[in-house]
Amino acid sequence: MANQTFTEDTLQITTSDGFPLSATCYESEKKTANIIVASATGVPQAFYRKFAKFAAQNGYRTITFDYRGIGLSKVKSLKGFNASFIDWATLDLAAVVDAIAVQDIPTFIVGHSFGGHAFGLLPNHHKIAGLYVFATGAGWHGWMPKQEALRVKTMWNVILPVLTKWKGYTPMSMLGMGEDLPKGVYAQWRYWCKFPHYFFDDPKISSQMKAKFAEVSCPIVAANALDDLWAMPKARDAFMQGYHNANVKTIDIPLTANLKKIGHMGYFRAEAQPLWVDVLEWMA
Predict the structure, then answer these.
(1) Backbone angles phi, psi at 60, to 5 degrees
(2) Which pTM does this prediction carry?
(3) Which position among 21, 106, 200, 265 has the lowest Cβ density within 10 Å, counted as fewest Cβ atoms?
(4) Residues of the chain with pLDDT under 50
(5) pLDDT digits over 254-270, tens only?
(6) Is 82 left (phi over 0), alpha (psi -120 to 50) or beta?
(7) What is the secondary structure of the chain as a DSSP string?
């Protein structure tokens, strides 16, 4: 792969409802395409810096950002702060797409977990040439191994309700599980994880969700590691069927001597660079 020089600059992107999002642009002199990194729940943009640098060194203008209430888009207090998964997709990610997909080069999204959920909710997905997503799946415990399912059910039904009621937001950092979450994000996440097909099974909004996802027609790659206990391939398949009018390619990532552990977060750690090569080659 190439090794171009690049610049790293901070940006502020304002959403349609006036919220300022913090973003970072990694840009090389010769640009092949734009990449927007749509991060996982509660994972700050800094986590994706190594991938963004790698992509920029190979000629891809790469944008990372933080959803409202997370990372560098934090507010003074999450207590009483109103934000949801729907906001993160239809307002935050949508604003980044509008800000970035304006040049004469194609724009792709590289998603992680929630990033694959958010894409189908975008009002402006038609501006995106393709989606390559890691670790997206329906978060239902029934798709997980029994021990992990028990741990997750305990988290949802015992630990997090108590902590959220106490704090007024969801203190994931107390559990070593990423950034603290707005209460509305936690509420939707917990509720939708009760269903085998995530929000597609929500009787209140399933028809709306299905209609939005049916509009997506760009090519998609959904890659999941065989040791990703939160998003096993069968959980991915249960969710990705929502993109039924898109050309979806699924990849089961095996562990190798050089990549012995991936889990739910390892896709964007330095040792996963071979996976990044696959992403850029697919875009090319």
Answers:
(1) -110, 120
(2) 0.96
(3) 106
(4) none
(5) 999 889 999 999 999 99
(6) beta
(7) -----EEEEEEEEE-TTSPEEEEEEEEESS-SEEEEEEPPTT--GGGGHHHHHHHHHTTEEEEEE--TTSGGG--S--TT----HHHIIIIIIHHHHHHHTTSSS-EEEEEETHHHHHHTT-TTGGG-SEEEEES-----GGGS-HHHHHHHHHIIIIIHHHHHHHHSSB-GGGGTSSS-B-HHHHHHHHHHTTSTTGGGG-TTTHHHHHHHHHT--S-EEEEEETT-TTS-HHHHHHHHTT-TTS-EEEEEE---SS----TTTGGGSGGGHHHHHHHHHHH-
pLDDT digits (tens, 9 = 90+) for 80-92: 999 999 999 999 9
Sign of CA dihedral 185, 191, 197, 203: negative
